[in-house]
Write a structure and sequence with these properties.
By secondary structure, this protein is of the alpha/beta class. It contains eleven helices and eight strands.
């Protein structure tokens, strides 16, 4: 899934440069920026074939008010009790129905999965998302996740593409809290993501573009990854044409926690987990020190 379209970024380069010269219309342009950043596609993805058996649909309130908006989520418990669990944040454009293959693979790794749609996506409430709103949604999802998985040693935070920035923000916030990562999660997975939104804009448009001054949506993972103390697995397809793999290298270089970078030869923006399934799983379990569960169809299942 492409986090940003070239058309959008060229629009940003020209339209927002003009907007900087105009005092009026800023709110409308900021709204358009959000709309084109998230590019929400309404309805189910065309390849979606329905929920697998065992998946529970739930609604998570974002606030405490009786009329609080909600985020829609899928909870898919692992087959084995006490298995690791993943809090899954997706990227732009597609809602949960477009994420099922990756969610299924994490479940096949032997993990429970709580996957959420930000407000404005799928069956969640709300209107056009913003950077601030998706961060707020992530914190609501974390509260639900923590209640369902009370043991922090079983918790893993995962983000793909734009969701990687959401996951980094959440992990940094948890590690800044009293107690830090020892009280939060076992680790963080950031797949096919980027340093900042401005860096992506420059990468696919013009290197001279002062995008950090133009864009109101920052998604500054590079500035936040240094605050993360839990172990981090960075994954990127070496053939990613939408978000260059050098962004994951830059995040890896900046990270101060125990870390690993898995670059997958031949993989693009969406298929690293499928192309390098065994290497992905092994890296995840080794870095986070997780106990191996039998793989589907493995001979160990019979022991």
């Amino acid at each position: 899934m492409r986090i940003l379209s070239s058309r959008f970024l060229r629009y940003v380069a020209l339209a927002f440069a003009l907007a900087a010269l105009a005092a009026g219309g800023c709110a409308q342009l900021a709204y358009k920026e959000r709309e084109l950043t998230f590019r929400v596609v309404q309805g189910d993805a065309s390849w979606y074939g329905g929920l697998p058996d065992g998946v529970q649909e739930i609604d998570i309130p974002v606030g405490a008010a009786p009329d609080a908006e909600h985020v829609h989520a899928w909870w898919w418990p692992a087959v084995q009790d006490g298995a690791p669990a993943v809090l899954y944040f997706h990227g732009s454009r597609w809602n949960l129905t477009g994420q099922l293959s990756r969610i299924r693979q994490l479940h096949d790794f032997g993990m429970s999965v709580l996957a959420v749609d930000y407000r404005g996506f799928g069956k969640s409430g709300g209107g056009t998302p913003s950077e601030a709103s998706v961060y707020e949604d992530a914190r609501a999802a974390w509260r639900e996740f923590s209640a369902r998985v009370p043991d922090p040693r079983r918790r893993i935070i995962y983000g793909h593409s734009l969701g990687g920035a959401v996951a980094v923000d959440l992990a940094a916030a948890l590690d800044r809290a009293p107690g830090g990562s020892a009280e939060a999660a076992r680790g963080l997975v950031v797949e096919s993501s980027f340093t900042t939104l401005a860096d992506v804009a420059r990468a696919v448009t013009y290197s001279w573009l002062p995008a950090e001054w133009i864009l109101s949506q920052k998604f500054d993972s590079l500035g936040k990854i240094v605050q993360v103390r839990m172990p981090v697995l960075f994954v990127h397809g070496a053939a990613d044409r939408f978000v260059p793999a050098r962004f994951s290298q830059a995040l890896y270089d900046a990270a101060r926690a125990r870390k690993r970078l898995l670059l997958v030869d031949g993989a693009t923006h969406n298929n690293s987990m499928r192309i390098a399934s065994d290497a992905y799983r092994d890296a995840l379990f080794a870095l986070f020190g997780l106990r191996e569960a039998p793989r589907p169809g493995d001979a160990r299942d019979a022991s």
